[in-house]
Task: structure prediction
Amino acid sequence: MHMGSRITAETSACSAEIFTKKVAGSSKDWKAGEPVPYAALAEVFERIDSTTKRLEIAEYLTTFLTNVITRTPGDLVKVIYLCINRIAPDYEGLELGIGEGMLKKAIAQATGVNVNHINAEYKKAGDLGLVAMNSRATQATLFKPKALTVNHVFNKLREIAKTTGASSQTKKVGSINGLLAACQGQEAKFIIRSCEGKLRIGLAEQTVLGSLAHATVYARHAQESKKVSSDRIAKELEEASKTLKTVFSECPNYDLVIPPLLEGGTELLREKIRITPGIPLKPMLAKPTKAISEVLDRFEGKKFTCEYKYDGERAQVHFADGKLSVFSRNSEDMSVKYPDLIEHMQKCIKPNTQSFVLDAEAVAWDKDEHKILPFQELSKRKRKDVKAEDIKVKVHIFAFDLLYLNGESLLKKDLEHRRELLREHFTPVEGQFAFAKSRDIYAVEEIQAFLDESIQDSCEGLMVKMMEGDDATYEPSRRSLNWLKLKKDYLAGVGDSFDLVVIGGYHGRGKRTSVYGAFLLACYDPESESYQAITKIGTGFSEEMLESHYKFLHPLEIPNKKPYYDLGDAKPDVFFEPKVVWEVLAADLSLSPVYSAAKGLIETRGVSLRFPRFIRIRDDKDPDDASNSEFVAEAYQRQVVASGGGGKGKKKGGGEDGGDGFW
Result:
């Protein structure tokens, strides 16, 4: 199921009821034409934070956004950015970069409280936002400060993010201090949380997009003052939400998307906003499969192709107006990291190619042996200030899809057509650029032979893709059944692969007393913005690996768990900042009384991984890009279907609940 689709269906079902209500603001109301008060947004955040019901969350936000659109539409872009806790599109790389130490210092200065007291309160509460709010509430003031507006808060946060130089830390603390000094009520809590980079109120971006789409429909009907049937409203809401999410997945930039949305609704949005070189799409993803027979079941009677699944980093290459850019799977601009990739691409573009967006994989390359190197070699490259002459680990590009060409979007074209255009407009360059190796085959024996060949060529396995028809289009941000992932580990019975966040550690025993002996891993739940514990891993590490992990993770230790860590009954000895993502293989999955991953998606218990094995560090993934709770639930359900079980999981064994296998 596509992320956020659950809430879309449910909010559409109750939308008529919401529309019949008076579009009321919060107690922090404002008049048409006035700036949106930050207090009004903070109150909505507080309401959302006080419930776990998805329908209520959507209703609170939709009502508020409807008010913004009808009263102060010019503030809508900034309101949305604050709701998703960002200050710019992902690809701009503009981040606040404010650590706990700096925030504690700012809180102390703004409230007149000693830093030691701030530390003590933080140790008890585990939430710097709450500490800031409580400290501000007890502070006596002679004059009531001027009320904060959304516009002022957003601009100040951008100013903080752009502050650089020798005295940047002092300037940032001063700016945060100024914001806190003007805070009233719960405003300080959310100002600090925004600075930390986590609102932690359970407001996922897909929910924000759905509420924004609904609010535009409500605002239009409120301004028209015409009676409309509940069935018509429900239909318009569903269509608006679907359109906005589709358009945004192709052009993820609120600065570009919101103006036409306000001007003419989703109809104008569809007309004016399209895939644009320089603005990275969220890539299409594949569903994992455990058997070649599943591939044939899915694609029976249809034309499909098998491609090598390269062991590298996803690279989306954009070209327009003579400029080449490269973006990662999480929309990070990697052009500086890969100057050699830019150089390679310039050689292979044919003269009839004026602009394009292509999907590819960048792999480490042994230029002497002419072969692919493991992903770990690629991860050794510097991420910033890379000079072509200093590069030791060479990169090779394998292109597998073309999404845009010479001013035209190709997303709705089938893969067969896109692949033909890709090969017509680019020229392979030995050792630098090539098309993904593929074969159009139909029998089990042929797929197995090609899979074996891919592994011999240092690849992870195969990608199996629909070639023609409506099921062969490119679907940004979707994990689609029209692309299946067939990895050697799946077929070997080793199990599923997961990208998990390291959130805790366990002290080593015996020879491991100087390092962490085991680690607590978590998946990400986008709806609650929480990291859900899924397994403990402690086997398969060499002494050198444990030393390396300790050196990297020890500086990330924090005194208490984050409020957004959903541990279940797991009890690690130490906690870490959510910074590190590991790829892990598991023998299988089981329902767990201990861990909280995917709880509520299958039953009240969570899901755990049994016999997990560390594969590699995923430097190319942010923690929020880790395997999410829905992915975990789907993996468990696939396992149940494959084993012919009834959905209650396998017999437990190994560790505390069968999730570990090393205690």
